[in-house]
Task: structure prediction
Amino acid sequence: MKKSDLQFSNPHLEQITFKTKEISKSIEDDIPIEINIQVIREENINEAVVQFHIMIGELDMKKEESKYSVFLDATTSANFKWNDNLSDNIENMLRINGGAVLLSYIRPIIASLTMQAGIQPLHLPFVNFTE
Result:
């Protein structure tokens, strides 16, 4: 097996906010899911931090409650390193591969949180990070 020229380490949860409505037992099919990926790096250094931010549902700021059955706001991140031969397209690779890796870390946390809250587990769908 040959290791990839792009490696990651220290994936971790940076922050999470989770709220439910008391009467909810299931999650709406049309609940909004927003994902944002940020790459933090310095020029000419083959290292970066990729942050994966996900927001599920909406929060009514006046009432401080979820507009949907669930509100979740979470950020995970990891450190990435790569070899010089990847430097040409690295920003795109970090967004696509970093997003896919970090989604796989947050997915079971979200499923577990929703299940422990007494509602159906929310299983995040696959995401096409190339578009």
